[in-house]
Amino acid sequence: MDEYECPICGRSGEVSLRYPHYICVECAHRAVDENGHRLKFSNVALSGGFEARYVDSDEIRDSHVCYVDGVRCLADEAHMGGIVVIIDNNERE
Question: How far is CA 88 from CA 49, 53, 71, 75, in A?
């Protein structure tokens, strides 16, 4: 049986072949922008879509890039709905 550890905190979780570098939900809740402002992610409708917002102002952020404990990540809509946050191995904007 394969084992998964969150690449940020090391917490055990379910292996994902589609998202091998995903971070756990607890770490995703600590996501911030490049200036340290907390972010939250959601689907825009029951049918999916992706949206990032600032926690303090509820303003929409037009970017998938976020940082967790100084590690650059990308947040996006998951394949079958929900949100997934992965380590950005490509270092792209």
Answer: 20, 19, 8, 9
Supply the pTM of this predicted model: 0.88
Q: Give the containing element (helix H, strand E) for 27.
A: helix 25-28
Is residue 30 helix, strand or coil? coil
Q: Looking at the domain assignment, is residue 77 inside a domain?
A: yes
The domain tally of the chain equals 1
Angle (nearest 5°) at CA 47 between 7 and 90: 30
Q: What is the pLDDT of residues 4-62, one digit of tens each?
A: 999 999 999 999 999 999 999 999 999 999 999 999 999 998 777 899 999 999 999 99
Query: Are the beta carbons of 70 and 77 closer than 8 angstroms?
Result: no
Rg (CA), the chain: 13
Instruction: Give domain status of residue 11, yes or no.
Output: yes
What 3-state class would DSSP assign to 60?
Answer: strand
In a domain, 73, yes or no: yes
